[in-house]
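The records we work with from here on pair a chain with its fold. Taken together, the tokens spell out the fold as the letters spell out the chain. The record below shows the convention in full.
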Amino acid sequence: MGIVSWLIDRRIASFQNDLILKHYDEVQNIYSQMRGWRHDYHNHIQVMKAHMALGQMDELNTYLNELDADLTSVDTIIKTGNIMLDAILNSKLSLASAKRIKINAKATAPETIKVSDIDLCVIVGNLLDNAVEACMKLEDESLRFIRIYIGLFKGQFYISVTNSTGQSVKKLGGHYQTTKSGYHGLGLIRVDRVVQKYSGYVNRQSEEGVFATEVMFPL
């Protein structure tokens, strides 16, 4: 192992510790949402019991219809067919929404895919971490957005993440660099390693105010 690879591996170990803190924030965010849902659920039951006690069946029916519509509007859970992919997508996007980042996501997973669940989570997790970080550089919340598409494209497994950014993303030695203090784009390096492992393809484009990453794997 060369000195450069050794240094990168050491930095990746530190990078993993940083991910633990991110996962903690994600879990805390989901836990807060669950507490909110529990509180709302209790209130809804009390309202429906009151309508029933007073024999207000029409009012109860109206309330149930409104509740059904409300639940449908907030059901933004992504279901790709891949449990691990669902978990990483929903935890990351839930945290992004809490940060007032607009989300536009469409994701499906083919029944058979050569990429392991762990490697898939490495790619999606890192791409979304970088996207959220870039969005948070924008003081104007109305400009923050992340667009995700995961599915089949031209006979290959395709992952696309596009996000707004508050500053241009620079290249160093042919590689784009994130703004994470002390890590110098290690997340992108991990993505590149996984793509290379499966003989895939990665393309990154940086334009004014927007950064996009495309990853493709042969099926």
Observations:
- Residues 83-218 form a domain with the Heat Shock Protein 90 fold (CATH 3.30.565.10).
- The radius of gyration is 21 Å.
- The beta strands are 102-107, 145-153, 156-164, 171-172, 175-176, 201-207, 210-218.
- The helical segments are 3-53, 57-74, 83-98, 117-135, 186-197.
